[in-house]
Amino acid sequence: MVPEAGLEIDHVSKRYGDVVALSDMTFEVRPGELFGFVGSNGAGKTTTMRIALGVLEADSGAVRWAGEPITLSTRRRFGYMPEERGLYPKMKVLDQLVYLAKLHGLPSNGAHRAADDWIVRLGLRERRLDEVQKLSLGNQQRVQLAAALVHNPEVLVLDEPFSGLDPVAVDVMSQVLREKAAEGIPVVFSSHQLDLVQRLCDRVGIVNKGSMVACDTVDALRSSAASELVVHAPKAPTGWAAGIPGVEVVSEQDGRTTLRVPDDVDDQQILQTALDTGPVHEFSRHRPSLAELYRNVVKEGQ
Ligand SMILES: Nc1ncnc2c1ncn2[C@@H]1O[C@H](COP(=O)(O)OP(=O)(O)OP(=O)(O)O)[C@@H](O)[C@H]1O
């Protein structure tokens, strides 16, 4: 049965000496949700994930799963892919996965079956008897994902699972994460690949300086931002749009101007102003991408 409450990070704060790593970090990853955790280097993503897994202790706040505080035995049912990758370099891929599955409580035959299944699924069949240290980095990462999944976890927490993967491995990883979410488990992963996060995730949390600054579906985040207008008016003099009330000039190059336009500004007025300078070859509105939104949010917070 899928629980109603997911993985809750509730007002968590953490300092390392004078460094404030997390300040009142709060969000929930719901059962069945694929949640993207994004933020600059040092924003606090790894710290949050380590606290969720109990690898690190928070100074204050709470972490809950299915409405209950997390204990050692709950954590055994989590799947975790740590940033520093935690495999035994001299162990063979198959032995490693069987060992980890047993460590999480699977009986011997179940552990073998699960290890074999994930080896095949993640394209590691040829490598199953190789030592982990002899694999390429991308293949080590596939093993790391298998290690997070081999005990059939109830929650998945993955720290930058896509970094260093080739496009085929990115597709396999994306598919696996989608499937896991579709099975009803909460899946949270951090990434700097914002186009991927935008494509894949049900909801996204943007972290800045240890706090959650925006958290919603990509569509909701994009539609809450002012839209942009691209105007291609090759004869328009530089600065032609500077005086239009309420409009911000984002960029202007080779007759192509990008304007940030609040929804209540009349774009026909802008079109007329552009036409007054000569022909207009393009006049189109678009919502900012997640990457653009992210840059705005981070810039505002500086
Ligand atoms: N062991 C530590 N000792 C001291 N400071 C630390 C330690 N670990 C992290 N920090 C600091 O805590 C803050 C948050 O770091 P964290 O690793 O959580 O960020 P992140 O969002 O995961 O970054 P990245 O995208 O670079 O992996 C940073 O200022 C970092 O320098």
TrEMBL record:
* Protein name in the entry: ABC-2 type transport system ATP-binding protein
| Residue span, ABC transporter domain | 7-234
What GO annotations for molecular function exist for this entry?
ATP binding; ATP hydrolysis activity
**Mind telling me which PROSITE patterns this protein's record contains?**
ABC_TRANSPORTER_1, ABC_TRANSPORTER_2
Instruction: Cite the entry's keywords alphabetically.
Output: ATP-binding, Nucleotide-binding, Transport
SMART domains, per this entry? AAA (SM00382)
What the record says about family reads: Belongs to the ABC transporter superfamily.
